[in-house]
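User: Second chain of the day. Same drill as before.
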Amino acid sequence: MLRNTLGLLFVALLALVPAGAQETQPNFVILLADDLGINDLGCFGRKDQNTPNLDRLASEGTRFTQAYAAASVCSPSRASLLTGQNPARLNITTFLPGRLDRASQRVLAASLNSNLPNGVQTIAQLLKPKGYASVAVGKWHLGAKGHEPTDHGFDEYFEGKANPGAESPDGGKGELEHADYAVKFIERNKAKPFFLYLAFDNPHIPLAASGRGIEANAKSFNPTYAAVVESLDVACGRVLKALEDNGLSKNTLVVFASDNGGLHVSEGKDSPPTYNAPSRAGKGYLYEGGIRTPLIIRYPGRLASRVISVPVVLGDLCPTICALAKVPAPSPLDFQDLSTLLFDSKPPASAKPRALFWHQPHYMNQGGKPGGVVREGDWKLIEQYEDGSLELFNIAKDPSEATDLAAAEPARVAAMRGMLEKWRRSVGAEPVKANPNFSRALWENCFVKTDASRLEALPTSEAMRPMLTDWRTAMNNVKVEGPNALIFLESRDAMVKATTLKYEDEPEKDTLGFWINAEDTASWTFQAPKAGEYRVTVLQGCGKGEGGSVVALDTTQGTCEFTVEDTGHFQRFIPCEVGKLRLVAGENTLTVRPVKLAKTAVMDLRRVILEGVE
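Assistant: Same format as last time:
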């Protein structure tokens, strides 16, 4: 009898304990800026912009000095952050709907999904079984009606106004209205766990800030941009204060980041907005300025105030949040839980740096070109999809990516390029195709006469605008029909007549190799859109000391010959323009045959490029 009475008393006392008190679920707040550069905050070294609230957040939490977005533009970066999947797997590899094909572009845009795919779970959906309330505030950019946040697991969606006007009480980019809605959400849901995803439209162009704010920042590189960033900081401060006022700070993990790098070129009347030095380039580019992001994480009582220099990606936030909420991580998962890195004072010494990958098969409005990236340790390899060329940088020693070490490190280039190719196949990355309406003249206006990736900042944004006028006009040219014909003959499509030559189809290769018999040939039958003379470029690799073989390329209209270059490794490929050939309109056959075998093997061959001469 006594045992039953005590049992009933325990149950009664348990009923008086607030729900969730036995295992308090943390809240999660993600504050995501739009196009904020890696050094735009005071805590990341900026001296001419005022960001006291975010600087305080950094002083109270962990600041990451090598954080990356999963893409150099908005939509793919946001998709990755919310799902833990790489943009290449999601097939959202540029901003939606993407830049149209133009005659100034050597390759056609890869196909892409127009919205976040159904069945791919977001953080909001993953947290729902634990009773989390969720809201998406501000910019979505992952689909329209039928694919809005509430169609992907969020309980609420408040879009607000992206551009309410420079003198609007909501903020020139709507940031104050967004913050105020977020504050109300916090107050409504303070008694239960919540996930707040606040994606500002600030500081994306067009820039809009009050005259008072611009005047206060008159000595900045770009006074309007500095005022916009300052207002963003005020908006973030309102959200942080709401957490404090409601006694939620200690149990809330707060993340601040940007969806990609800062815009460093002209793309509007008040641009360029910012600069990313010492990082190279900016938004739209696969160089560091385009994919580096400021990242701050605060979790009082759990996370120490410190700086972490280990490379991380915003896609890591999804599995990290899942781990803290004790819910299963998404599957498939392309990123990793950062809990050990965050909460262990000394990560395991045996931990090997993971490889990080990017796939951007598109041209960008800012001048970025199609390419792929792998970073392993301090080394970063960029493959340019236009011609297959490879660049290698040591990020630790050369943060500005000024010195290409590909020729000095051919074995490393070959290994890392193999990693990139294997990864692309594993996630089903969409390849690029030649643009048959390519115009070399228009392309040179965009990418040769001005290499915007190497643009250096002047003392003020205003001083830079005249030097970018012609380049911006060229980039805005929407002409689609070009006088050239551009044809890619890929190694995997070759017809091989050989005893040893073969297409190497290992996951890390896409090459014609084992060319050790001078009688072996490879050929392609293809359609040429017009008759005439074509420039011929071969994408070839050749081992150290193995160069010197003479190779002929034959068509029914003639032959051109070239001598194979030593590239230091058979899998370090370089594009070599080797001559010109005439083609007929319609069906043609091109055959590659050795004329002279100099050493052990002729070469490895990945692609033959035929470009109509204007």
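The chain has 15 helices and 27 strands.

User: Great, on to the next one.
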